[in-house]
Amino acid sequence: MKDPANEQKLVDFTAKTLKLDVGKAKALIDVYKSGFNAKLTKERWEGMKKYAAFVPDWTTNAYEPCASLTSG
Predict the structure, then answer these.
(1) Contact 11, 25 (CB under 8 A)
(2) Complete DSSP assignment for 4-39
(3) Cα 62–Cα 65–Cα 69 angle in degrees, nearest 5
(4) In angstroms, what is the C-alpha Rg of the chain?
(5) Over the stretch 54-70, which tens digit does the pLDDT of each residue have?
(6) Nearest to 7, CA basis, from 16, 25, 21, 18
(7) Structure pTM?
(8) How far apart are CA 43 and CA 58, in angstroms?
(9) Fewer CB under 10 Å: which end of the chain, C or N?
(10) Looking at residue 65, what is its pLDDT?
(11) If you ran DSSP here, which 8-state letter would residue 3 be given?
(12) What is the pLDDT of residues 9-36, one digit of tens each?
């Protein structure tokens, strides 16, 4: 999501998924894209249970080196 080369794919995916026109999807991404880089922690992972019907088990599904990786 941080690579500008991927932005149009993200816009298209967002538009399709949220049933928005492309312009509105782009505007939405422009507002919220700075929050896409949140560190993956066990607490955040478990917190997804408030919003999703199924969240895989952290222990067997979160690859620790990826969870610890920071961008930049």
Answers:
(1) yes
(2) GGGHHHHHHHHHHHHT--HHHHHHHHHHHGGGGGPP
(3) 105
(4) 14
(5) 999 988 887 766 655 55
(6) 25
(7) 0.48
(8) 10
(9) C
(10) 60
(11) S
(12) 999 999 999 999 999 999 998 888 776 6
